């Protein structure tokens, strides 16, 4: 279990909040402020409760102090999001940070410069964590997306100050908990995407946790190949055939039912609008590639989901970027969204291309929870303990 900001008496306290304001930017302007707007909930709540709110974040991947990664461009959009002025300090530790914080009144918000301007941040250096801790009385971690990294501002700091989860972190942990840690069964997982090799740990963890593992996308080709089916020129990791068979065996032992395509859409090239046909698994031509699951597979997957209470989704079921090979991803995502709207299915998705695949299917806002956390979401699906979360326990 983790503590939330409900457990903190913040009035008059200096609260260090680790947010993830690592937004896309171009020519010194933020191009998508979603992360800032989403992070504002925790910051405004703390400020409204009378805290001095000191925001820590990283921006980009600077190697030491690199002005193009200065966070000063975030001040204006952050002020707009928290509906109050935001003070600025050109360093996240030391005299500049101390002066900015000393000037704060209860209810004020300040943003400090990029924590990654100090290489000690990513090394989780104890002296750097101590210098950060000296600036605050309490610590709130609201950056689930960096919780898989044991950095000073995500992990070290939590050990030095009373620590808890912010509202975004809380929402993410609650959604993920409901989906895999204490879900309503039956639970299905859709795992798609390009390669088995990048998702081995994920598949290994899921077979021991879910009732149905629905495998699609390029990685299904490797499984089909391992089962002796022809795959033509498909994306397929033939050297992973033994591993795929091991996963199938592990699933059997764990009583996890694996759902693979029963028919596939094939084309001569990986290109939008390429001439395509639906074929059975034994009929994939030598000079064609599998780019999507076929209509019978879609029906079988949706049927399966109709009997489930919980769905975890990572990875597209086909080459969703190029039409018409987005059909299976769209149809299954829309069916899952419909079941969610009816209150019959809890749907949690995230990682890699999943967010854009679901947005393209028009269902991003219709799942119970879509995580934008990328790497942290994947590590959680792999069953790993995230150091930033563990430190809040
Ligand atoms: P990932 O990042 O592992 O979730 O993989 C997503 C990528 O897998 C997308 O770029 C898809 O185009 C690709 N993909 C899915 N199915 C196929 C397929 N049958 N053949 C080639 N690429 C695929």
- The low-pLDDT segments are none
Taking all Cα atoms into account, the compactness measure Rg is 23 Å
Small-molecule binders here are: adenosine monophosphate
Rounded to the nearest angstrom, the distance between the terminal CA atoms is 6 Å
What strand line-up does the widest sheet have?
5-6-4-1-7-8
- Look at the structure and give the CATH class of the largest domain: Alpha Beta
The main sheet comes to: 6 strands, parallel
**Morphology:** elongated
Q: What's the number of extended β-strand segments?
A: 17
**Into which percent range does the helicity of residues fall?**
25-40%
The DSSP helix count reads 14
Query: Which superfamily, in CATH terms, is the homologous superfamily of the largest domain?
Result: Phosphoglycerate kinase, N-terminal domain
Which band does the percent of strand residues land in?
A: 15-25%
Domain count: the total is 2
The chain-level structural class is alpha/beta
CATH architecture of the largest domain: 3-Layer(aba) Sandwich
Mean pLDDT score, rounded? 96
């Amino acid at each position: 279990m983790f503590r939330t900001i409900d457990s903190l008496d913040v009035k008059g306290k200096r609260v260090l909040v680790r947010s993830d304001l690592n937004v896309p930017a171009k020519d010194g302007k933020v191009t998508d402020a979603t992360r800032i707007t989403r992070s504002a909930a925790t910051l405004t709540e703390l400020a409204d409760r009378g805290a001095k709110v000191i925001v820590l974040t990283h921006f980009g991947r600077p190697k030491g102090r690199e002005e193009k990664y200065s966070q000063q461009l975030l001040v204006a959009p952050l002020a707009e999001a928290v509906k109050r002025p935001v003070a600025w300090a050109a360093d996240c530790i030391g005299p500049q940070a101390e002066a900015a914080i000393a000037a704060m009144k209860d209810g004020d918000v300040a943003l400090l410069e990029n924590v990654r301007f100090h290489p000690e941040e990513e090394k989780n250096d104890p002296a750097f964590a101590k210098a950060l801790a000296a600036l605050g009385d309490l610590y709130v971690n609201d950056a689930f997306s960096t919780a898989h990294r044991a950095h000073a501002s995500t992990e070290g700091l939590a050990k030095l100050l009373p620590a808890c989860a912010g509202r975004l972190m809380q929402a993410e942990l609650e959604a993920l908990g409901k989906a895999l840690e204490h879900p309503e069964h039956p639970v299905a997982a859709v795992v798609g995407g390009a390669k088995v090799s990048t998702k081995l740990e994920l598949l290994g963890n899921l077979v021991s946790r879910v009732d149905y593992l629905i495998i699609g996308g390029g990685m299904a080709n490797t499984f089909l190949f391992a089962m002796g089916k022809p795959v033509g020129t498909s994306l397929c990791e033939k050297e992973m055939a033994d591993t795929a068979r091991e996963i199938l065996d592990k699933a059997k032992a764990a009583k996890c039912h694996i759902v693979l395509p029963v028919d596939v859409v094939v084309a001569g090239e990986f290109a939008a609008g390429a001439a395509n046909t639906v074929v059975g698994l034994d009929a994939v031509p030598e000079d064609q590639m599998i780019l999507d699951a076929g209509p019978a597979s879609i029906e079988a997957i949706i049927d399966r989901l109709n009997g489930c209470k919980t769905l975890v989704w990572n990875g597209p079921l086909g080459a969703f970027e190029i039409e018409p090979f987005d059909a299976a991803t769209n149809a299954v995502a829309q069916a899952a969204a419909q079941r969610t709207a009816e209150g019959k299915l809890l749907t949690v998705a995230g990682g890699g291309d999943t967010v854009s695949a679901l947005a393209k299917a028009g269902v991003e806002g219709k799942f119970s929870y879509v995580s934008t956390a990328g790497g942290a979401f994947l590590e959680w699906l792999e069953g790993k303990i995230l150091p930033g979360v563990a430190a809040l326990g």
